[in-house]
Queue: 3 jobs
Job 1
Amino acid sequence: MSIKLDPKMLFLSKIQSKLGVKFKNLLQFNHPYSPQNLDK
């Protein structure tokens, strides 16, 4: 891979990191209600 940042790749990585943060927040928020905990 080239080190030169392709605008498209930069855009994708931005979206990916944003989604990653949102997904992590969702996981943390839903943690008490996750299926593993509901089964106990």
Note: Residues 7-30 form the longest helix (24 residues).
Job 2
Amino acid sequence: MHGVKSIDLLAPLYRAIHQRNALKADAIDDVVLGCVTQMGEQGTNIARL
């Protein structure tokens, strides 16, 4: 998975959360994400990518 960008992992997650919970996008204030090994491209704030 070293060639997979973080945004390519997060986009399907956001879509699935929206579909499974039938929430309006403006009803979500915060999404908390983290990274265990912050190095290379993951050294940035993964949630802001």
Note: The mean pLDDT is 74.
Job 3
Amino acid sequence: MSNNACKGDVLTFFEKENRPFSVVDVCSALKNYGKTGISRALDDLVEEGSIKEKVYGKQKVYVYDQTKLPSFDENEIRKMEAQYANLSVELTEEQKKLKSVIEELKKITSSLTKEEAEKELTQVNEKLNEIEVEVKALKAKGPGIAEADLKLLTSVTNSFCLKAYLLNTVALRGSTSNQYLSTPYQFYYIVLSQCVSDIKN
């Protein structure tokens, strides 16, 4: 293959990867060319200024000329970093919630009998009834609920809905019916979530 083709592929490789490489690294990546051809292409590209050469002892390392890369908006970078940080926090919180749910499920399924679960499920559903009434009352008042109150209400609602689901799982243990689809849990979750969303908006 021609030297120009080799140079083009080597340059494209450095631009795409944008990190330091030795001759051996480039040869491993571009197996269509021999070491002599790649070494010659690197020398030419260094002379042209397309890539930079650094010498560490007896080894040469090459990297794409950073001045040829497009510039980035610093504000956009900071915005992306902030988004990444927020997503990392959210991920950590969701992982904690998942761990808590798994532990709660293990605890409930191992400590309650079917009859006990049914009894406690009835109590939880009664509490969900009360919460539904409170939510609808808040909704009737219109906007203006404090953010702290909204967060507390959402947390309590989610907590009781989750508990209802876990208890229902135990109550239906060994059953072949699909009773969950008609349990109060799903109804309350949909209704309460929608009400809370309406209040928030």
Note: The beta strands are 51-56, 59-64.
